[in-house]
Amino acid sequence: MAKSKSEPAEGKRRIFLVDDHPVLRAGFRCLLEAEPNLQVCGEAESARKVFDRIQATSPELIIVDISLPGPSGIELIKGLKTRFPELKLLMLSMHDETLYAERVIRAGARGFISKQESPGKILLAIRQVLSGEIHLSEKASARVVSKVARSSRTGTGSSAEGLTDREIQVFELIGAGQGTRQIATTLHINASTVETYRARIKEKLNLKNAIELLQCAIRWSNDPKY
After folding, report:
1. What is the three-class DSSP state of 75?
2. If you count Cβ atoms within 10 Å of the first and of the last residue's Cβ in the chain, which end, N or C, has fewer?
3. For 3, which DSSP code?
4. Average pLDDT, whole number, for the chain?
């Protein structure tokens, strides 16, 4: 009898993809299945469709995009780590790794890789996480270590430490010059929800108006220790 796509192939490491872009998932499937010991055992386009599918496919590693419709990739990783603590998780994103590395690791992922990296580097990250290591770029690793050391000395973190993961995403996009409607499209949420996040960020950072919010977001995007 022929094996189904999700049935384990002998000696192959099983990987599940979570990304809302079908073309990107197809590209990753081609990249991974060209490797003799890697197999894509399942896919999902949103966080809400992951849990039932991974129970049916039993992956070793889940690669998660940070920007998903509905709950974000970071929220998904937290949920997966709670329900399936043995799963290995790797975050994939177009966002700047240095802005998210610490939050991603704290959420339960074992690494972060940019979609802009070469196929060789992406495969290296996957193999490192599968082997039990943590994968971060040298730049991100240095920043995380520096932040921990600075927090130990001062007892404080950056001005954005009190923001939730979703608020950080909105804050970063504000700093990148995106308006409310652009942010809503990028994060797959309503414009009114973006305005709620903007109001919460201003309150938490003690900012008076939209101009101060934009200025602060630009400074933080250029230097997250700000």
Report:
1. helix
2. N
3. P
4. 83
Please give the tally of structural domains in the chain.
2
Look up the pTM and report it: 0.71
Residues contacting residue 135 through CB under 8 Å, at least 6 positions apart: 90, 110, 111, 112, 113, 124, 125, 128, 129
Q: Are 192 and 133 in a shared domain?
A: no
At 131-189, the pLDDT tens digits run 999 998 777 776 665 555 454 444 444 567 778 888 888 998 898 889 999 999 888 88
**Residue listed under structure tokens 């599968």:** 130
On whether both 132 and 198 belong to a single domain, the answer is no
Range of the domain at 97: 13-140
What one-letter code names the amino acid at 126? Answer: I
Q: Which of 140, 174, 194 is the last residue of a domain?
A: 140
